[in-house]
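HUMAN:
Sorry, I am quite new to this. Are you able to go through these amino acid letters and fold codes? The numbers rather puzzle me.
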Amino acid sequence: MAGGENSKGNIEPEKQSLLNHHKEKHFTAGEIVRDIIIGVSDGLTVPFALAAGLSGANATSSIVLTAGIAEVAAGAISMGLGGYLAAKSEADHYARELKREEEEITSVPDIEAAEVAEILAEYGIEPHEYVPVVNALRKRPQAWLDFMMKFELGLEKPDPRRALQSAFTIAVAYILGGLVPLLPYMFIPKATDAVAASVVITIAALLIFGYAKGYFTGNKPLKSAVQTAFIGAIASAAAFGMAKIIHP
């Protein structure tokens, strides 16, 4: 809440001292981790499947590598743009709702005050307890607006740099993930040999990535590792098999 800095100065010294000495250990980099997961997950899987498919069609390592690098470049741009547009849409939505809520506080303050009371009542707060809170918010329009955005609409103010950060993070993560399955093709001229090395390296990377993803997202790391590697293996096997059927 934007009014938090002002209200923080009104906290009793004893309680303020407790807050100063208490450090929360919550994980707060969720958006960045989400972007990394999106980028690396697709980066490992899509070029891996493409390389396997081309190898199944008896393409040379140089062709697989050229096509793979082109796909990684196009994929990074596409994924990065998607991340940018998603974050930009979220920021635009917040701005529209903020303007609408600000107008409602000005034009129908009694209704908005009743909504504050309703929100507080849902937490089991009695009328004689929430009335002073409602009155205090009415005297602080910015704090009132922030309260309504957060507790009525469930919206957090987005970071203005979020769109560019998301685009950059997803694109870089995609490139890093996409280069992994292509590495063997840089050193092994025969694609049928390179694909075997690519499978081993990429499955290992998927296992490590899946484990890390599970760890940071609060899921079971081992289960996440197996699931991630399994999905990547299925994608590449399907691409390789279809290529063999079409181009024996």
About this structure: The two ends are 63 Å apart (CA to CA). Confidence is low (pLDDT under 50) at residues 1-9. The longest helix spans residues 61-107. The chain has one domain: 31-246.
